[in-house]
């Protein structure tokens, strides 16, 4: 799981990767369906995670400006920091377990 792969650095690593997306795109937590290992990744623009990286998406953080501009203006790091307050961990766990069963 996340703790085994990243320890307590997971949120910081995914947040930094996501904030660092140039222009529009996504930060992702995905799982490799072959190795069953978790990985973080980023995709530019509308590039999909699975065809781009081979990872099955578990959590996506949208950093297209439309996702945050009305509330956070151009302060993307603030938006990404707040996204953790609404992440549905139960859903992510279910998605992860489904990949593990394949």
What does this structure look like?
- Strands 2-1-3 form a 3-stranded antiparallel sheet.
- Strand 1 (25-31) and strand 2 form a beta hairpin.
- It contains 6 helices and 3 strands; from the N terminus they run ααββαβααα.
- The protein starts with a helix and ends with a helix.
- The chain has helices spanning 2-6, 10-19, 49-53, 69-72, 76-83, 89-100; strands at 25-31, 38-44, 56-62.
- It is α+β, with helices and mostly antiparallel strands and 102 residues long.
- It is globular.
- 43% of the residues lie in helices and 21% in strands.
Rounded to an integer in angstroms, the radius of gyration calculated over CA atoms is 13 Å
Taken from the alpha-carbon principal axes, the silhouette is globular
The total strand number stands at 3
Sheet of most strands: 3 strands, antiparallel
Cα distance spanning the termini = 16 Å
Q: How is the largest sheet built, in terms of strand order?
A: 2-1-3
Indicate the proportion of strand residues: 15-25%
- Tally of contiguous helical segments: 6
What sequence of helices (H) and strands (E) makes up the elements?
HHEEHEHHH
Helix content: 40-55%
Return residue spans where pLDDT drops below 50 for at least 5 consecutive residues: none
Mean pLDDT: 92
Sheet/helix structural class: alpha+beta
């Amino acid at each position: 799981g996340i703790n085994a792969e990243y320890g307590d650095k997971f949120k910081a690593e995914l947040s930094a990767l996501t904030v660092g997306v140039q222009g529009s795109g996504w930060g992702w937590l995905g799982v490799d369906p072959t190795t069953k290992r978790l990985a973080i990744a980023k995709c530019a623009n509308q590039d999909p995670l699975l065809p781009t990286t081979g990872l099955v998406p578990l959590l996506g953080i949208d950093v297209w400006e439309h996702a945050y501009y009305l509330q956070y203006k151009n302060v993307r790091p603030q938006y990404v920091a707040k996204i953790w307050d609404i992440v549905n961990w139960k859903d992510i766990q279910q998605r992860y377990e489904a990949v593990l069963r394949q």
